[in-house]
Amino acid sequence: MDKILIIGACGQLGTELTLKLRELKGTENVIASDLLDEPVELLSGGPYEKLNILNKESFQIILEEHNITQVYHLAAVLSAKGEQNPHFAWQLNMDSLLTVLEAGKDKLQKIYWPSSIAVFGPDTPKENTPQNTIMSPNTVYGISKLAGERWCEYYHEKYGVDVRSLRYPGLIGYKALPGGGTTDYAVDIFHKAIAGEKYDCFLSENSMLPMMYMDDAVKATIELMETAPENVKVRSSYNLSAMSFSPKEIAEEIKKHYPNFEITYHPDFRQKIADSWPGSIDDSAARNNWGWQHSHGLTELVEVMIENLKETIVFD
Ligand code: AKB
Question: In angstroms, what is the span from residue 77 Cα to ligand 1's centroid?
């Protein structure tokens, strides 16, 4: 039986991945961990450990106490926040990955570590960005993800560590909020629309970015982790794609549900980050190697977000 530790479990992806893994593997077999004293409400029904992953000893103790066989290491400083404290972003994103990869040499059977479209940069072909192409990230987050991908492949080649990874686009879900990314607008916009408020977008109206509904991201992650090792032919990180849209396009789709919804545009420093990223992604390697298929496009995404968020947003 797998015993799974999720690092960064209280974050946007961690919350939903933990819930799904608990459903599939049994609550007691999935230990959530994060910096908080107590887990977020949604995860309070299962095992939780307070963990700062920069503290290697605490990590080792948790691995041993729970006989952990798999780690999903999701803790990271994202693109926008990383620019405010680049050295800390580098330290957290890199040191923590190396700590987990080291444990992969002897203690762990499998590791999951997320990469991002942020590994690409202004010199990368923008449309249908290939799996292997020019990579020139210009954010500290992107640099750390590209370096991390190289470390993952290195530990796999050199020490046989079974580490698997996906390059996520912007992730959009209703159960937890994102924190510090450039694609966060695509979640914030729903909260404003449903509250009957105007949304002031920090990206320009035509900034096209790859995006994905959270259920698809969770499905891809678990499918990659569950597939036989011989299907995992990319040991850096797989391109992964579902849809691409601009702020203007998602606003138009939201207006089909809330005709009075208004959006304004005041691009800030995040615009430059968005401009350096691809508009669309070629994920044929993931589709061919382990059968990846997405289920939500823009129309379905907007429907499911509105339907579910309506239930949870408390109006003043
Ligand atoms: C961010 O915007 O930083 C993240 C990402 C695309 O990795 N959502």
Answer: 10
